[in-house]
């Protein structure tokens, strides 16, 4: 398999997720200030998808960049395409489906560039595996977009190792954005994270705190993991959220957790995880709490 490009994308240790930006009730100055505060914390990677907020979030972010153009040079913009939702913003979509065709990917990129008020995307991801993907056509489309300067790097999201490998052989990818948390560790078992280590790809992690279940879940697994994290967090003098993110970042694939909160305090807790170093035994304590048994 091909290695990533020599000039690989430099993610920040934590990425800011914009999935719920439309729910944060921030006016344009408020959005500008939120971006500025994230940058001040060293969070320079901003994660989007064309479908977020019913195809509205990219434009909300773009309004902030139009109001403060200098911010664009300080960040990496990530967005995703390939999911077609039935929505008034896309009247041509008659069915929820996946589409990785040249026509759809190129149209999605043009939409995202206009909405985000930028002339290039730092990273474009195929949001979900398309069962009809033609890897040769998609790789050629990526090559065209790179040659035109519209997209600098490419990756996938929610792809299994064989799906990523098929595309990576044709076009070097830089990431697989996956679900991974102390409550959801399938990526450890199915080879996804091992593949990232092998290929030198830094995975991006969505729902790294289990969608809030880590703090409020009343099931047995959530209670076990929460108790273990609380004990370790107390030892390190940090919050449970900070400790959980540090646990994820301990993996040798060097994962990039995505924090999707409009609260600056949540961003601070996330950024603090970069200063916590867990021992291998403490990492396995969390693994054991999640799995409900010791290692074989």
Structure notes:
- The chain is an alpha/beta fold and 296 residues long.
- It has a domain at 15-174: NADP-dependent oxidoreductase domain (TIM Barrel).
- It has 13 helices and ten strands.
- The chain has helices at 28-40, 52-55, 57-67, 102-116, 135-147, 161-168, 186-189, 192-199, 213-216, 220-236, 240-249, 264-272, 280-291; strands at 15-17, 45-47, 76-81, 83-84, 97-98, 121-126, 151-157, 176-179, 204-206, 256-259.
- Strands 1-2-3-6-7-8-9-10 form an eight-stranded parallel barrel, surrounded by four helices. A two-stranded antiparallel sheet has the order 4-5.
- Helix 10 crosses helix 11.
- The chain is globular.
- This is Oxidoreductase.
- Residues 14-286 form the NADP-dependent oxidoreductase domain.
CATH homologous superfamily of the domain at 15-174? NADP-dependent oxidoreductase domain
Approximately how much helix is present in the residues? 40-55%
Shape call: globular
Percentage of β-strand residues: 5-15%
Order the strands across the largest sheet as they lie in space.
Answer: 1-2-3-6-7-8-9-10
Low-confidence stretches: 1-6
What is the CATH level 1 assignment of the domain at 15-174?
Alpha Beta
Mind telling me the C-alpha Rg?
19 Å
Structural class per helix/strand content?
alpha/beta
Number of strands: 10
- Number of helices, counting only DSSP H or I runs of 4 residues or more: 13
Overall pLDDT level: 96
Query: Architecture of the domain at 15-174, according to CATH?
Result: Alpha-Beta Barrel
Biggest sheet layout: 8 strands, parallel, barrel
Enter the CATH topology name of the domain at 15-174.
Answer: TIM Barrel
Q: How far is the N terminus from the C terminus?
A: 32 Å
InterPro entries: AKR_Detox_Biosynth, NAD(P)_OxRdtase_dom_sf, NADP_OxRdtase_dom
Protein name: Oxidoreductase
Organism: Rubrivivax rivuli
Domain NADP-dependent oxidoreductase: 14-286
């Amino acid at each position: 398999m091909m290695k990533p490009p020599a000039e690989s994308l430099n993610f920040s240790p934590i990425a800011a997720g914009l999935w719920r930006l439309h729910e944060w009730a921030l006016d344009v100055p408020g959005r500008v200030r939120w971006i500025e505060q994230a940058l001040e914390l060293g969070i320079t990677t901003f994660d989007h998808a064309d479908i977020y907020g019913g195809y509205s979030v990219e434009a909300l972010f773009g309004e902030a960049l139009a109001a403060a153009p200098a911010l664009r040079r300080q960040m990496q913009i990530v967005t995703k395409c390939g999911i077609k939702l039935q929505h008034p913003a896309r009247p041509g979509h008659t069915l929820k489906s996946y589409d990785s065709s040249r026509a759809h990917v190129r149209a999605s990129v043009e939409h995202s560039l206009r909405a985000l008020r930028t002339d290039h995307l730092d990273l474009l991801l195929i949001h979900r595996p398309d069962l009809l993907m033609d890897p040769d056509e998609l790789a050629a489309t990526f090559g065209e977009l790179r040659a035109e300067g519209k997209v600098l790097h490419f990756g996938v999201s929610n792809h299994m190792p064989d799906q990523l490998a098929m595309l990576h052989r044709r076009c070097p990818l830089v990431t697989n954005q996956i679900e991974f948390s102390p409550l959801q560790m399938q990526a450890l078992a199915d080879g996804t994270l091992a593949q990232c280590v092998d290929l030198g790809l830094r995975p991006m992690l969505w729902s790294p705190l289990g969608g809030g279940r880590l703090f409020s879940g009343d099931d047995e697994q959530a209670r076990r993991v929460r108790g273990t994290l609380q004990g370790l967090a107390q030892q390190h003098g940090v919050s449970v959220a900070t400790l959980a993110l540090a646990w994820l970042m301990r993996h040798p694939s060097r994962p990039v957790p995505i924090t999707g909160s409009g609260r600056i305090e949540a961003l601070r807790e996330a950024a603090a995880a970069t200063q916590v170093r867990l021992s291998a035994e403490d990492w396995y304590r969390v693994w054991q709490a999640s799995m409900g048994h010791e290692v074989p």
